[in-house]
C-alpha cells in the first residue's frame, strides 16, 4: 500500500451536524479511530439559563466525564446572539463537565438566521468578537473555547476582520467551513480563500467542507494553510475516513461493506428504534450519505425505504446480507 507525504500531522475533529451526528453517532464514529475531539449539535440559547436536562439531552457524555465511550473529548456547542446568556450557559456546560465549549457562527439554516443565530452574525464582525470575548471571560481559563464559522455571509470580504476579532477575543481554536452562508453545502468548498487569514495561527485552525477522501484532506490543508481538519458529511459517507487520514492511507479504500453493514445494523438496533414515531429514520439518513462510496448502501436503502417497524427492518438487514451481497 502506497502513501503520500503529509505536510504535517493533523488533528481531526468530528463536526457538529444538527439532527445527524448525535451522541450515538459520535460513539460509533470515534470508535473507528482518528478523532481528537467532537462537537455536539448546537444548543440554542436565547436569553435564559437552560436547565441541566437540555445539556444532557444533546450531550449525554457529560455523565461520563465529557468523553465518548472510546475516550474522545466532547465540546458542547452553543448558538445564539445574547453574549450574557451564552456566557451563563457556557458556565453551566463547564460545571456539568464539558471538556470545552464551542460557539456556532456557521449554521446557514434560515430559521436559525432569522432569530439572529449562526452565520447571519458574520455580517457583524465586531458583534462576533464581543460574543466570543464575553463567553471567554466567563469561563475558567483552563477550559478551551473554540469557534466555528463560515468564510462569510454573502461573500468572504469580511473574513479577515472576523478572524482577527475572534483571536483577539481569546478563542483557542477556530474551524472554518470554506463556503458562505449562501453557498450552503453546494460544491466546491473554497479552501484557498482561507489562506489569507492563517498568518501565525495555522496550529489553531481547522478547515472544513468537501473533505471526502484522504487526498481531499491533503488538498484542503495545502490550499487553506490550516494545520487541522474538521469532518462532517465525509465522516458519514466513509465512517473510517478519519482513521485513514490519521494513518495517511491514501490508497487504502474505505472499510469493507461487509463489516460496515454490521455497524449500521447495530446502530439501528441499539439507538434508531427507540422512538416509535421515527423508527429507521436515522438509519435511512445515514444510508443516503453512504451511497457516495458504497453501491450496496443503495440496495439496503431500497429495502428499508418504506418500512417503519423494527421487525420488518431487522428482517431486511438479514435479507440484504443473504441475498444482495451475493449478487454484488
Report strand order across the widest sheet.
1-2-4-5-6-7-8-9
The number of helical elements comes to 13
**What percentage of amino acids are in beta strands?**
5-15%
Mean pLDDT comes to 95
> What is the strand tally?
9
* Sheet/helix structural class: alpha/beta
**Percentage of residues in helical conformation:** 40-55%
Low-pLDDT segments: 1-7
* Count of all domains: 2
Please report the first level of CATH classification, the CATH class of the largest domain.
Answer: Alpha Beta
- Summarize the main sheet: 8 strands, parallel, barrel
CATH superfamily of the largest domain: Aldolase class I
Please tell me what the overall shape is. Answer: globular
Distance between the termini: 25 Å
C-alpha Rg (nearest Å): 20 Å
- Listing every helix as H and every strand as E from the N terminus to the C terminus, the arrangement reads EHEEHEHEHHEHEEHEHHHHHH
CATH architecture of the largest domain: Alpha-Beta Barrel
Can you walk through the features of this model?
By secondary structure, the protein is of the alpha/beta class. Helix content is 41%, strand content 13%. The protein is built from 13 helices and 9 strands. Helix 2 links the parallel strand 3 (43-44) and strand 4. Helix 10 packs antiparallel against helix 13. It starts with 11 loop residues before the first strand and ends with a helix.
Amino acid at each position: 500500500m502506497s502513501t503520500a507525504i503529509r505536510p504535517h500531522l493533523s488533528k481531526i475533529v468530528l463536526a457538529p451536524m444538527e439532527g445527524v451526528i448525535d451522541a450515538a453517532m459520535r460513539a460509533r464514529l470515534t470508535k473507528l479511530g482518528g478523532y481528537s475531539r467532537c462537537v455536539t449539535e448546537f444548543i440554542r440559547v436565547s436569553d435564559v439559563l437552560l436547565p441541566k436536562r437540555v445539556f444532557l439531552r444533546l450531550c449525554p457524555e457529560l455523565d461520563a466525564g465529557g468523553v465518548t465511550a472510546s475516550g474522545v473529548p466532547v465540546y458542547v456547542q452553543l448558538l445564539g446572539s445574547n453574549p450574557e446568556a451564552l456566557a451563563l450557559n457556557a458556565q453551566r456546560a463547564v460545571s456539568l463537565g464539558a471538556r470545552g465549549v464551542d460557539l456556532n457562527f456557521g449554521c446557514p439554516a434560515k430559521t436559525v438566521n432569522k432569530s439572529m443565530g449562526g452565520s447571519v452574525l458574520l455580517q457583524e464582525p465586531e458583534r462576533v468578537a464581543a460574543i466570543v470575548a464575553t463567553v471567554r471571560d466567563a469561563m475558567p481559563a483552563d477550559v478551551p473555547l473554540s469557534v466555528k464559522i463560515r468564510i462569510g455571509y454573502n461573500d468572504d470580504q469580511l473574513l479577515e476582520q472576523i478572524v482577527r476579532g475572534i483571536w483577539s477575543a481569546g478563542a483557542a481554536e477556530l474551524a472554518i467551513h470554506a463556503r458562505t452562508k449562501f453557498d450552503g453545502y453546494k460544491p466546491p468548498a473554497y479552501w484557498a480563500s482561507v489562506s489569507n487569514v492563517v498568518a501565525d495561527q495555522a496550529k489553531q485552525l481547522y478547515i472544513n467542507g468537501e473533505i471526502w477522501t484522504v487526498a481531499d484532506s491533503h488538498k484542503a490543508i495545502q490550499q487553506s494553510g490550516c494545520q487541522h481538519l474538521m469532518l462532517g458529511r465525509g465522516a458519514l459517507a466513509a465512517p473510517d475516513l478519519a482513521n485513514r487520514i490519521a494513518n495517511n492511507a491514501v490508497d487504502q479504500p474505505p472499510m469493507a461493506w461487509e463489516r460496515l453493514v454490521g455497524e449500521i445494523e447495530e446502530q439501528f438496533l441499539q439507538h434508531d428504534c427507540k422512538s416509535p414515531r421515527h423508527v429507521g429514520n436515522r438509519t435511512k439518513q445515514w444510508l443516503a450519505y453512504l451511497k457516495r462510496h458504497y453501491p450496496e448502501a443503495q440496495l439496503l436503502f431500497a429495502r428499508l425505504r418504506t418500512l417503519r417497524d423494527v421487525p420488518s427492518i431487522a428482517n431486511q438487514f438479514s435479507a440484504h446480507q443473504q441475498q444482495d451481497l451475493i449478487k454484488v
